[in-house]
Putative ATP-dependent DNA ligase
Amino acid sequence: MGFKFALLCDLFSALEDNRIVKAATEAKATNPDTRVITRWFSQHGKRLHDKDTNQLALLSCMFPEKRTDRVYWLQDTSLARTIGRCLLLGSSRREELERWRTAGGVDLGQCVENVMRQAENHIMPGQEVTVEEIDAALEAVASRCRFSGPRVRRQRTAVDVEEALSPLYRRLSSRDAKWLTRMILKSLSPVVLPGTLVLKSFHFLLPHLLLFQDSFEAALNMLRSSPIANFPPHPEPGLARDLCAIALQHLDPLVGVKIGRPEYFKARSIKHCCQMVGRRRVSVERKYDGEYCQIHIDLMKRPSSIQIFSKSGKDSTADRADVIQVIRDSLRIGKPECKISRRCVLEGEILVWSDKHGKIADFHKLRKFISRSGTFIGTENDSPPQPYERLMIVFFDILLLDDDVCLKKPHRLRRLLLKDTMTVIPTQADIAEQWVLDFSRPDAQTRLENIFARGVAERWEGFVLKGCEDPYFAIFSGDKTDAGGRWIKLKKDYIPGLGDTVDLAIIGGAYKSRDALALNQARKLFWTHFFIGCLTNKDAVLQSAAVPRFRVIDTIDRHCMSVKHMQILNQIGQFYACGLDSGHGFIIDDPPKHLPAMDVVYKTPFVVEMLGAGFEKPSGARFYTLRFPRIVKIHSDRSFEDAASFVELQRIAEDARAVPVEAIADEKAEWTKRFGLATGVSLYKPDRSQSVHSATASTQSTGTTMRTLESSGRRDLYGRGDRARESSSYEARQSRGTSLAGASSRPVPIYVDDSTGSISSSDSESHGNLLKDNENLSSHQNFRKRKASDSRYDSTEKPAKARGLSENANSTDGRAALEPAPSIPRDMRHATTPTTNSPLIVPEPPPKHSTRSPLSTIPVYISHNIPRDAAIIIPNRPADLDAFLKAIGSEDTKSRCKASNPYATSQDTALGLIAASDIHRLGELLLELTNKLSETLSAASSRYPRSGKIFVLDSDFLKLGTTAGDLRFCLRKTWANIGREYFYACVSWGGGMALSAGADEVPCTPWNVDAGPVRDSPSISRILVAFDREELEWVGEYSSMQPLVHSREQVEG
């Protein structure tokens, strides 16, 4: 008889009903799904293990998405037509069946139930549909599709889809037909079966066996083999551990069945990565940006002795036939020196090598070489494969060699065995690049930072850390924490603030009922997919108010945003949505063919900050978009004119992808410095939500999704109302009569994502900042800024030598950081005796300003040791941090500061400098500084400056060949040069001076080791740690010495 499908539907329906129960308070203590699953398996346990029950068919029905070898070629539209014909529905009932298309409505499965409920099928006893019948019918349907696996296609029959499905739908109740429909669509949403619990309830060894052999059929065969067949399916916990150990000794991988992959952790920072590693010895392997493959070799099956499986587990040997000969040559198959006698299983990455560029080509190049079941998808706009391009294989693990089950071996032995098994063929076959780090040594973290910095600078995808003594799976390690065999992935975009971000416009939406159903936590949704559009005529729109013309470049869905962002887009979007032909005022070019159809257009497009893992060319496109995009923030204070245009996005992408060969050492040093700072910052207790800061002191607000930013007109470091490097959108809007001042005087709502742990940028940024002003975001910015800044200086000036953080800059010739002495009018000079080391013509200021160098007026604290060859001697320097912070707020400092930086004094803003000599102790220094600063601000009187900035520099800047009284330190350009070489961080508080807000600013909650985090209070200013070196230009007050006029007074006067 088999297992009745109605019994399985009882489980699905009970789990669906639990959606309401889960909303109750008591559900937080105990998961109602666990109770339902346990009860269902206890009721039907005997039937499940009955000899008449096809367990493979049952598991295939429970987890339809796991059957990647079956492709039915039936989506909602085609399946709805098929079901209508199977049930012989009339026109009115067909219309009701089509209601799944309605935005905010139900899915196709629910529509099928609603239609069939009007006339339920009468099912005779003994005629019930079984899971075996359903599995056979779906196997027959899948055999017709060329995208199904080879084994499924070999069973192809002449069955028609309607002939296969009609007997099933006509013998099912309306409820059961709903679940069959969802099974065919390979999504049981809104039900998600807890896989581990269900598999353990079936048999306690099944989850482990599926790791070992990623196939239901192979796992069930192992359950029937000796001695596992004699084990009870649900033993006591103590006995289960002993039986599991016995079973592992008898496991032997089957060549031709994909082996599962271990789980991995994501490192959210260098420090987080080191914490997960502990004191282990690990292998740090480069992560290649290609297609994963698992290679199975059985020399007994000639000539087809090689099988290649994709990450999903599908046999894709035919699609990757071009790399098979390279595999044979590398493994020396058929030659006497071949190390394989009978069988072998290896893991690797398929890449494209370019002889022309001498490196691995971009990921999108692969689709020109690898087909999908014989069809090349998304290549219509790609150039054909070039003679200098070829497929390449990079091996990184060996899992089986003849009778040696390498899965149980530690990674270091597997790596040695892999080296012995394969032969490197330059540009064709290689082994993954590797570094071995012992984290019991104190320099391990520094070495990891240097390796990671190199990878980021050279645009590698990332790294994978594997324990040298860990087996492939944790189940072989005996680690009770189940973490022994887990890998750690370290990628730039996993670390908050280091990914690539761009402001983009959302111009339209579409509704997909299956996606809406999967969002259990969201309220009624009108759209589940959103279309990203870029202006193609931005200049014309800004200059002559032309009709905006958009080009759709991508879509984002529930996987690219939080539930809260999804709700915000739906709630606000309903006020701006209109039909495609209802006069929205835009011209929208036809979207790429691979994108779904747009349902509505937003008359007022959203502007969102998108984070991605670099840039790529999507399928069928000639342009670049963000890779793996996700929304970080929704900007309600920006219009689509402020978002990146199509040309700007392509320029950003090209710059981000370019590897600055001539400046690779500089960029590596910059990233190393950033990681060192991030280590220190991680000691703080940051707000888990995306945060913003205002020009006034603010308190931390937790659990909210909308924050208010009181924005006062932003001024840049040069006193202008908008930053010089921003796009022309601001000026164009001003010329068209847009009042930014009026807009910024009102509270601006900022919607932020509380669900992510990343640290966001401030929302007080000006308009038009397309790629966030943050060196952590796109590594290409360092190179661009360096080139742009270097080009502004005299070509005869000696360039400053880039200084890596791991090196000691012992050179005393630091004049590169100082500008040549400016030409000063005769009446502005006085008789100051120049030093012999740096002959200067010192300007004489007007009587109203007795100008002095900031190094002689603001407090300077030297942490640790003074460089031996320091040329700049700091007078009256504070002995410790406490004295330094006290000096910052003293009246004497305020009076002296008026001579060098009157604008800062007028704003009641204090300045200070710290010279740090040890980069490895920088995190400790920042932690101590913010804690002591918090205590000072809490205890200080009202006379303490209400805002201020403390700049942390490398103490090597004291080696500059001049004196502390050099008036060139009054110039902003001097400090800009110093910042490029010596800047570490800026600690600021209060809102007296506008910050260069960026995603590299960290709102810090000072941490007390004994008492925990120091909570914010209305009387305490927010403390921020920023890494934008342009902040340092605040120390230099003047833009020119000729004439000596205060630039800010000119602007404000």
